[in-house]
Design brief:
Largest sheet: 8 strands, parallel
Strand order of the largest sheet: 8-9-10-11-12-13-14-15
CATH class of the largest domain: Alpha Beta
Radius of gyration: 21 Å
Low-confidence stretches: none
CATH topology of the largest domain: TIM Barrel
Number of domains: 2
Number of helices: 13
Shape: globular
CATH superfamily of the largest domain: Metal-dependent hydrolases
Strand content: 15-25%
């Protein structure tokens, strides 16, 4: 009797853990059940991927969906629609919302809200504070929780633990890897007086300079070694940090952002004004080149978008009152595919950084690989498709992207979530089907 599946993906070139291969994939009950399904197999639904690449469902491990908060800027429904349109099957959502996700009550709200409202699967960060360290060991084991997030430098929201004693108390509470925003708050505040309102937007990278980031990372690495607690440094942005982290691979993993691989200061500030302002800042070419070197030599473990929308009015305020944060979840995959086509990294390395890497670093169960028994999440891309990113494609209510006008080669054509096609050719299909991701 011929094998029968719920979904057959036929004719595509699959990016597997062991390399690329032309293979038909069979899916049953939301899981991958066959790689190399026979030609005689049948299915309730077939997807013709001839001429396309079938990637494991990509993961954005760093988004700010602003929910709870202001739905006129972003929300879980709108942000996850943007994610699946951009080719992501999963996102990990940051805690600096209003109110912040820092206790059992706010976590329970988010755990209950995601099913039925999210269009992709979601992991939840818990925010570390000065007062919740005693609860973190229990909170980090909650359903759908990907990690604790500690802000050692101030940014959007009111979560801040800047001193060594406070950071160490958090690191001694629990066992899972902690994600760190590692800018040094003391240096940030000391340097603030060097600048005045209305200074050029490029002053953002001078205020939050290389030493702000490097000092923060040095302090966190010392505490990681002292406590034995693994640390994930998000949005590493300086050549100094990349070089330093080589000696801490026993306790540290590293993320780089699409922006730091794509935009260069001060030119981006001259072109985009406030729409180039983010934390840590977009820096000069030396740091851009160092980020790419770290991608090539294996130092980087994950790529994130740090999707952090704000209203146009907030982005257009004079510096330094400009809101820091850029949209990115809908554009990250096309931009990285464009980098693949430009020869800056291989498609396999991109998949490692945007699927297997996030799953490995955070312990996402059955995500990040095309392998039997894993969730049937897929991102199907056309490496030859040419398009221009435009603001009118962006579904985030804020309605803008810093990459408007960028010409791209390589585009996500479909997103499949646990065996169901949820996006195809710029159309989100069906109701919200997202659920909480399982973590070890």
């Amino acid at each position: 009797m011929a094998e029968h599946y719920d979904l057959l993906i036929r004719g595509g070139t699959c990016v597997l853990p062991w390399g690329e291969a032309r293979a038909d994939i069979g899916v049953t009950a939301g899981r991958i059940t066959a790689i190399g399904a026979p030609a005689s197999a049948s299915a309730a639904e077939s997807f013709d991927a001839t001429g396309l690449y079938v990637l494991p469902g990509l993961i954005d491990p760093h988004v700010h969906l602003r929910d709870p908060g202001d739905a006129a800027i972003e929300s879980i429904p709108t942000g996850t629609r943007a994610a699946v349109l951009g080719g992501f099957a999963s996102v990990f959502d940051m805690p600096n919302t209003s109110p912040a996700i820092t206790n059992a009550e706010t976590l329970a709200w988010k755990q209950g809200y995601i099913p039925g409202h999210a269009f992709c699967d979601v992991g939840i960060y818990i925010g570390a504070t000065r007062t919740n360290a005693g609860a973190l060991a229990a909170l980090e084991r909650g359903a759908g929780v990907c990690a604790i997030k500690l802000f050692a430098g101030s940014t959007t929201g009111d979560l801040l633990v800047e001193d060594d004693a406070g950071i160490e108390a958090v690191m001694r509470a629990g066992t899972r890897r902690i994600a760190f925003h590692s800018e040094d708050e003391y240096r940030l505040q000391a340097r603030r007086a060097l600048f005045t309102k209305g200074d050029p937007y490029a002053c953002h990278m001078e205020w939050r300079d290389e030493e702000c980031a490097f000092l923060g990372t040095r302090r966190i690495m010392a505490l990681a070694r002292k406590t034995g607690r693994p640390a994930h440094i998000v949005h590493v942005s300086t050549a100094e940090e990349f070089d330093y982290l080589r000696d801490f691979r026993d306790v540290a993993t590293a993320e780089v952002l699409v922006n730091h691989l794509t935009q260069i200061g001060p030119e981006c500030y001259e072109t985009l004004g406030g729409y180039a302002v983010m934390n840590p800042p977009i820096r000069g070419r030396r740091h851009y080149e160092a980020a790419w070197a770290a991608v090539r030599n294996g130092l980087v473990d994950t790529i994130g978008s740090d999707h952090a929308p704000h209203s146009r009015s907030a982005k257009e305020r004079p510096w330094p009152d400009t809101a820091a944060g850029l949209t990115g979840v809908q554009t990250a995959v096309p931009i990285m595919l464009n980098h693949v086509n430009a020869g800056r990294l291989s498609l396999g390395r991109m998949v490692d950084l945007m699927a297997a890497g996030p799953a490995r670093v955070y312990g996402a169960t059955a995500k990040g690989r095309i392998a039997a028994g894993f969730d049937a999440d897929f991102t199907i891309v056309d490496l030859k498709r040419c398009r221009t990113i435009e603001n009118d494609w962006i579904v985030t209510p804020a309605g803008w992207t810093p990459f408007a006008g960028m010409q791209i080669t390589g585009w996500p054509l479909a997103t499949i979530l646990r065996g169901t096609v949820v996006m195809r050719e710029d159309e989100v299909l069906g109701p919200a089907r997202g659920s909480l991701i399982r973590f070890t």
